[in-house]
């Protein structure tokens, strides 16, 4: 019998998935370090009527390492799929210029945007959509212009928004706004 067949039989018998068992085991404190396999197997046998082999299959699921988180490169790559792939080369060019600001620049990713950080403090965010790259910049006190608009509720983590509809719009002015935000970010005292 295959491992998956064991899990399928357990599901048919108990109505529970391996994830359900994992959540129940966690609530009982059975996933803490130092808990022995025998304790978990005994619980599964007693509370769910599983045989030894089936209980060991569930224990094996608990022991499987969590899926490795993707590295930063893979996380960034996810933002340039499909129609957004046209923005990869302009983004890479922009980052080459931004990294000249200092060696303390990092990129952090979320499912929807990329954050530009200086010493773990955000100074800009970048969103890619098929037809546009949106850059949010944190520059309090700067007056908006036709191009350098207030972010409003678009993203409350930044003060201004620049919409880039074609790569040539990633010009020296955008770079200057980003550099000012980077510099101001460094002026802030570190939180203790």
Task: Please give a structural write-up.
- With 192 residues, the protein is of the alpha+beta class.
- It has two domains: 3-63, no CATH class; 72-187, Aspartate Aminotransferase, domain 1.
- The protein is 41% helix and 17% strand.
- The protein contains seven helices and six strands, in the order ααααααββββββα.
- It has helices at residues 3-14, 18-27, 37-48, 52-63, 72-77, 88-98, 172-187, and strands spanning 105-109, 114-118, 121-129, 132-137, 149-150, 160-164.
- Strands 1-2-3-4-6-5 form a six-stranded antiparallel sheet.
- Strand 1 and strand 2 (114-118) form a beta hairpin.
- Helix 1 (3-14) packs across helix 4 (52-63).
- It is elongated, with a radius of gyration of 25 Å.
- The mean pLDDT is 88.
């Amino acid at each position: 019998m295959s491992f998956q067949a064991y899990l399928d039989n357990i599901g048919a018998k108990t109505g529970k998935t391996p994830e359900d068992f994992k959540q129940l085991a966690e609530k009982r404190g059975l996933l803490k370090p130092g808990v022995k396999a025998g304790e978990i197997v005994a619980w599964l046998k007693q509370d769910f009527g599983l045989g030894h082999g089936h209980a060991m299959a569930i224990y094996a699921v608990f022991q499987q390492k969590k899926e490795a988180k993707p590295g930063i490169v893979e996380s960034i790559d996810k933002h340039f799929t499909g129609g957004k792939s046209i923005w990869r080369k302009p983004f890479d060019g922009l980052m080459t210029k931004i990294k000249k600001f200092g060696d303390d620049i990092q990129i952090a990713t979320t499912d929807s945007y990329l954050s530009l950080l200086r010493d773990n403090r955000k100074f800009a965010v970048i969103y890619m959509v098929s037809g546009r790259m949106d850059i949010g910049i944190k520059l309090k006190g700067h007056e908006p212009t036709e191009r350098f608009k207030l972010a409003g509720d678009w993203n409350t983590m930044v003060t201004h928004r620049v919409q880039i509809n074609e790569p040539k719009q990633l010009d020296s002015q955008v770079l200057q706004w980003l550099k000012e935000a980077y510099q101001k970010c460094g002026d802030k005292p570190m939180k203790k």
